Amino acid sequence: MSTLPVYRWRLAPEGLATLRQLRAAGLRPGGQDVAAQLERPRRRGRPPLVAYLYRIDQAKPVRPMTPAKQAALERANAARRTCPECGRDAGYVIPVALGMCTPCAFPDDQVAAA
């Protein structure tokens, strides 16, 4: 079992990138193993924040969105906006804590008073 090289915040060598940096460049890890680890120290004895680094030269381009994937994504987002109580599209993602749209969660007399 090999250990990963660990770099401090902002001291990673060229040619390595985090997942977010790869995605911003239109790339994905493409099945490669983690090449290194980046640690950002924190105060008051808390453990450091950790980010994994991948080699840019082994990264692959992001797969394009197919029409089927786009349709599935639209259906999933529509389901997150549909209120299970009244069945209407709320126009926003319904909070999990409420489980229903705001008008159903808070009847008119409470909303008008606020």
What distinguishing features does this structure have?
alpha+beta; two-stranded antiparallel sheet; single chain; 4 helices; 18% strand; 114 residues
Task: Write a structural description.
- The chain has 114 residues and is α+β, with helices and mostly antiparallel strands.
- The longest helix has 15 residues.
- The relative contact order is 0.13.
- The model has no long low-confidence stretch (mean pLDDT 91).
- 27% of the residues lie in helices and 18% in strands.
- The chain is flat and about 60 Å long.
Q: How would you briefly describe this protein structure?
A:
The chain has 114 residues and is α+β, with helices and mostly antiparallel strands.
Order of helices and strands: EEHEEEEHHH
Number of strands: 6
Radius of gyration: 22 Å
Subunit organisation of the chains: single chain
Strand content: 15-25%
Main pleated-sheet profile: 4 strands, mixed
Q: Average the pLDDT over all residues and give the rounded result.
A: 91
Strand order of the largest sheet: 1-4-5-2
Point out poorly predicted stretches: none
What does the overall shape look like?
flat
Structural class: alpha+beta
In helices, the fraction of residues equals 25-40%
Number of helices: 4
Distance between the termini: 60 Å
